[in-house]
């Protein structure tokens, strides 16, 4: 059965953040939580990210279940490097390269799963109160899919005194439109769905 694996393909997709490009793979490449690497030192257990940092124009690497988002330095334009990066990622994955070393059951599952994973990045619900759990559910159901389609990720951090703190990753981190998205989109939605409880949404890294 492994002899009939679907060939690996990768395509590049622009994001709302001009400094970030999303490279989408036709199968799952990560089966645990999405991971963000700000430099090569943080990528010690992520061989794919470590190799991507060897390209001098790569500033940050974000890896999710079926895509890699790269943040570049301004020294190069995407038009000049997209093909090179896309082919590198495709060859690396096609050759069976490891994405993240501690990714649970990745090697085994990789042979059978084709983009049908539903793992979430939510904190363990038993550690959250009723309001926090509801906020996480809303973020997962209504916000995360749209954020992921833009090459990023959003994680719930805390809820205190009506203030929801979230972590923005990938293309959403440092994106010029992220503040508008937070205030007009996420904050408005939470205020509407949890009236009197949510007063503000802030990004701890934005």
| Low-confidence residue ranges | 105-122
- The CATH class name of the largest domain reads Alpha Beta
CATH superfamily of the largest domain: Scaffold protein Nfu/NifU, N-terminal domain
Radius of gyration over C-alpha positions, nearest whole angstrom: 18 Å
Strand order of the largest sheet: 1-2-5-4-3
Secondary structural class: alpha+beta
Number of extended strands = 8
Q: What is the CATH topology descriptor of the largest domain?
A: Ribosomal Protein S8, Chain: A, domain 1
| Domains, number | 2
Overall geometry comes to elongated
Distance between the termini: 46 Å
In short:
The protein is an alpha+beta fold.
List keywords for this structure.
206 residues; GMP Synthetase, Chain A, domain 3; 5 helices; alpha+beta; Ribosomal Protein S8, Chain: A, domain 1; five-stranded antiparallel β-sheet; three-stranded mixed β-sheet; elongated
What layout of secondary structure does this protein have?
Blueprint: E1 10-14, E2 20-25, E3 35-37, H1 47-52, E4 58-63, E5 67-72, H2 78-94, H3 106-110, H4 130-149, E6 152-160, E7 163-170, H5 178-193, E8 200-203
Parallel strand pairs: 7-8
Antiparallel strand pairs: 1-2, 2-5, 3-4, 4-5, 6-7
